[in-house]
RNA sequence: GGGGCCGUAGCUCAAUCGGUUAGAGCAGCCGACUCAUAAUCGGUUGGUUGUGGGUUCAAGUCCCGCCGGCCCUACCA
């Protein structure tokens, strides 16, 4: 946990800011994975930066423990919910620890502090007349004894008849409906047939706060800044708030769930529990309350409406709605501190695609740390993080290249190529002429600080790397290795190393929020302090240099692949364990219903031929398309575009015999005309399996 | 169905308010060097800025259509 004492303030004339920072609470129903880490690392970097600048920061987080999913997981595991979330908590904390994410306090939404604050907020909502009770009809699972959220019900679409559709919409025809409309609904929890039951629910009205919320997100007319970036404000206006001239009505929010539900029972409403999304954000405050109680601080100094502190939330863009509308509405009504800024980040993709368990790119934090140095990931994420909510990609090849090239070859190289020369003498007593390099780096201080402040870590790493690159050039030009051979140039050698090591240290200080371990190793090497921002302002002189030890090893590509392979294997095991035995596998016919009966004449209209893939290339600018030239014998060829690039590489198809529909009407596509279709099984990526003919089949033969 | 965001070199990203010939790193190629973790330094190849229109003296940037991706949301719009 972070030090409580205030570090020296960067700007001695200004009092330190008091900043309360949160990351969204991870749900206590699963492990932390690389997608989660985007947010915790982003927040941790920002927090560490603020601390280096002398600000007073509280970094608060907690496990989000309530809800149906946790309740069911606990049942399945045969333990109480409390025992279940306690176990998950240990795992989460271990993961955060490995990645250097340092919270001041990590609470739980299932705590007395949270219950107390939920009651306080609830009391305020009730007193303000914002709470209404209404009856809601919902599907109920008699076997599990719980009401079912939409995603826990499957059934046949009432509109198109497609089977196995989830409770709220149909993937096949796109229809939207209520789960109670489903034909033959089945609980995915127990397999039981759910019954429709009515239960009272409590709703919170936020429409009266419409004007307040508009001002909150986009700023006040008198020039006050909004709490969210412009694109987020646009989204909220477009989706929920509308224009002042054409406002949309904000819907009431259903904040209760009937028993059985793992959560807090609502005072005065026996059998009704606060919905997990109601108590989750209150967990930010509850965590602070617990911290205050053990640190002799006053909770109101951080959470009262007029508290002089700042409140910053870091969230993913999927939960923008809750944090930017409901949450401020709750706080406003409860007379509590409003967020000053909500930092919204995008999602992580891996190798250009959504994280996929099947492909092994759904990687747990713990699995990553088994194989690779967490510093790599902290750095790589930093090179990608901006204040915008764009998604960004963890390209595993690029990841390894980038870490090696930037950190090992450029930054650490500065130390490793000169520390040995400097060890016998230490650093020079006075800082030598370096052509202005150190001063130029020092002059970057405020610019880099404002980039950190704005969350533009990508720009920070770019600029610091440019400094380190210039430093390498300095060493190259000075040729210390030549001086080493000439005893008369010992002083000159010491000077060159003094410059190189100071430039290295400057970079390490600037990168310290991202790479705290590198900063610590730099402190050990140079016997100095690297934990304050001002450390980059003045060069170090006359100090001893320790024996150089490797600070960061190159990325082992084999470990990267191993990590992916093992993640893949984990998924396969989990699937095998989940699959009910001897049910004959997945019901693909239910998933994609049979077409109406056809006659032999209908079938013969489709002319299927054996074809050989003569040419195969990926289509530039298309993610899914391969352009194939098919040989049908006798000199006949066809150009066919096939949407299977994500599953088959172009080379893997060359020379293969495939089955194609040879009389399909040619279709003009963006990249050319497609004159047929290659047959493959499966509903689409990643399930695409090309049909093949047995040996002996020749191109052009018809399939009967 | 509605909305938001995104699309720039093989890869990852820059480009102030619309302003010169769209830049950088990595990878590739050529050369130099050898202190350093096959590191470093110099040079160099590589772009119809997804696509088609429009506005403008000037468009990667602004407007409209289309294609593609991600997300949110919805029997309202």
UniProtKB/TrEMBL annotation:
Keyword field: Aminoacyl-tRNA synthetase, ATP-binding, Cytoplasm, Ligase, Metal-binding, Nucleotide-binding, Protein biosynthesis, RNA-binding, tRNA-binding, Zinc
Binding positions (ATP): 357
Catalytic activity: tRNA(Met) + L-methionine + ATP = L-methionyl-tRNA(Met) + AMP + diphosphate
EC number(s) recorded for this UniProt protein: 6.1.1.10
Record has Lipoprotein as a keyword: no
Pfam families: Anticodon_3, tRNA-synt_1g, tRNA_bind
Residue ranges annotated for the TRNA-binding domain, each copy included: 602-704
Needed co-factor(s): Zn(2+)
PROSITE patterns: AA_TRNA_LIGASE_I (PS00178), TRBD (PS50886)
Binding, Zn(2+): 157, 160, 170, 173
Free-text comment on the cofactor: Binds 1 zinc ion per subunit.
Motif 'HIGH' region mapped to chain: 26-36
Protein location: Cytoplasm
Record bears the keyword Glycosyltransferase: no
GO molecular function (one): methionine-tRNA ligase activity
NCBIfam families the UniProt entry points to: metG (TIGR00398), metG_C_term (TIGR00399), PRK00133.1 (NF001100)
Described purpose of this protein according to its UniProt entry: Is required not only for elongation of protein synthesis but also for the initiation of all mRNA translation through initiator tRNA(fMet) aminoacylation.
Similarity field: Belongs to the class-I aminoacyl-tRNA synthetase family. MetG type 1 subfamily.
Subunit: Homodimer.
HAMAP family referenced in this protein's UniProt entry, alphabetically: Met_tRNA_synth_type1
PANTHER family the record matches: METHIONINE--TRNA LIGASE (PTHR45765), METHIONINE--TRNA LIGASE, CYTOPLASMIC (PTHR45765:SF1)
Official protein name in the record: Methionine--tRNA ligase
UniProt organism field: Alienimonas chondri
Species lineage: Bacteria, Pseudomonadati, Planctomycetota, Planctomycetia, Planctomycetales
Gene coding for it: metG
